[in-house]
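pasting for the record
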Amino acid sequence: MGNLFYTEFDTATWGSARKPDYRTLFQIDRDRIIHAHAFRKLQSKTQVFLSGEYDFYRTRLTHSMEVAQIGRSICNYLRTRGDPFSEEMFIDADLVEAVCLAHDLGHPPFGHSGERTLQELMIPWGGFEGNAQTLHLLTDTLYQDSTGVRGMQPTRALLDGVLKYKKLFGEFSPPPERHFLYDSQEAVRSFVFAGRPVPAALQQGHSLNEFKSVECQIMDWADDAAYSLNDIVDGVKAGFLTIDRIERWASEIGIGAEEQNWIDTLLAAIRSDRLEFTFSQKIGTFITGCRLKQRLCFLSDLTSRYRFELVVTDSAQREATFYKRLANDIIFESPQLQQMEHKARRVLIDLWESAWSNYVDRGRRTIRILPPQVGKLIEAATDHAAKARQICDWLAGLTDGMIVRTYRRLFDAEFGSIRDLS
């Protein structure tokens, strides 16, 4: 049975045409992401706490899986509400799952600390943005081979679903540190927009970055729901969020009745050792807080993906924002996490400078310190900006363990492993 929510416009693919098989095109999107090397690497990339330090912390991989589950559940919930949906018209849960599984593919090692460092390093060379890097993987890197095939031939709907930000780096003045696409991705944006020019109203400020397909909106809210709640759970288990610290924080910032109720529920859950159960129920509340409404925009005549938008209840959004603030103030601003940020900066900057001095700004004697294929890509790049992008791609693709081992091989005189050059 077909799904009238989507047309051939939505299922058109970027790059080579696909061979049809027993799966839908959106199921192929999902399956190709799951089997990609970049997806498996997420198991060793930091979400909040350093991956591998303890076995119960969430990594980028487990976070992406949780976001995918929430995204699918939102689709299923919206479908049960009826109008405008029916058996023949609904938001495809396989597509949303693919979008959610892909949404963090481009994030570098060391979590947000690593992302901020690469953003700083790449400002002169076109910027670094985790969302743009995800798009780069989908269209240029995944499954590339010697025959010239590049990327995973994603559908237009998948590409649009991961595009949280649609404004190009060069369309800002001054250049931003985050929330943009790379200038080289203008053709992908044009493909997503069917070649239509961006309306002037959307070019103002950050309006274009807020212009998202309904599947992207679902992914974005599923992401917010997952990390706003699960960062709290991990923070308690890690010993960062204690009853004393939470109570002290609440008294220092001054909170209202609604926020006090959330604090009381959190403290009761910690005392009764029912935190995961309590916050799992909150995920259900965040799912059932979703609705759809119709909208008009310059793409709504082409696709249902822009004929509807997601609406989330104000109370759910306020609660998610509250937990994100709690996690930021007590966990992310803690000396332990700040020390991790310092280490991430040191490791990434030192590796960047080593790669730059040996492959770009060469002195009289250079050493080939990078994997051969990475070195070839840097040397083949025609200008400094392109060479910087290749170095950035290499660093962003490393896992926490890989980047630490690489750093130790270069800078720790007592570390001499030659088995895992990567």
